[in-house]
Amino acid sequence: MESYIEFASYYDSLMYDVDYRSWYGFLKEILEKEGISYSSVLEMGCGTGNITEQICRDEKVKSVTCFDLSEEMLVIAKQKLKGIPNLEILRQDMTQMSIKKHYDLVLSCCDSINYITDEESLKKVFESTYSLLNDGGTFLFDINSYYKLSEIIGDNTFTEDRDGIFYVWENEYESDSEQCNFYLTFFIEDEQSGKYSRFDEHHVERAYRSEKILELLKESGFEDVRIYCDFDFSKDCKDRAERIFFLCKKE
């Protein structure tokens, strides 16, 4: 079962509580704190373009390339970002990138990295990203933490009913593979008939420990890596962080 097919049409409605402006604001704070300058940006796994929209509003940014694997998500992104100058939108697989340009900054947000479920493929992503960066460039990404996927989401079930959309989100954590399976069932109300139609999607995220991410980054050429977490500069990232940010510099 593929991911982000029918779900793409309802993604933004269901992510109504995510403040993307504040999300990108935190990324900018990290970059400013580290004294990093940038004007060309690549965003990997852009989805429907919510973070992309914020990148394009950044006065420091002169050109943006973004890509996603889901054609359905990109249809929405293209509508949302229509008319923005110096923006290139591509359909690419993160594990098989074929991009000729180089960038000052590469971003991957909203736990896109967790969708790379085997270590060799993730190392390949890191190596490709390293090669796409200009000298002195920066790779900044976030993950759902091992703690969040294994204990908070874990084997729990969540439901929501709002605005004609009811969904059940069942989760199954596999400790051997360190993978969390998301089984999503949606019921969508037809406004005219009042009847509901159903569709299902299956998503898988790998629960990576920070130590493994750091190991793979180092093997890929990133020697200088800083860690932040949970949108809070004062938090100790060893203390049950749920979202971890990695800032990686290419020397």
From TrEMBL:
A Pfam family annotated for this UniProt entry: Methyltransf_25
Keywords: Methyltransferase, Transferase
InterPro entries cross-referenced by the UniProt entry: Methyltransf_25 (IPR041698), SAM-dependent_MTases_sf (IPR029063)
BP GO annotations: methylation
Record-listed E.C. numbers: 2.1.1.-
Domain Methyltransferase, chain residue ranges per copy: 41-137
UniProt GO MF annotations: methyltransferase activity
UniProt entry tagged with the keyword NADP: no
Name of the protein described by the UniProt record: Putative methyltransferase
Originating organism: Andreesenia angusta
Taxonomic path: Bacteria, Bacillati, Bacillota, Tissierellia, Tissierellales
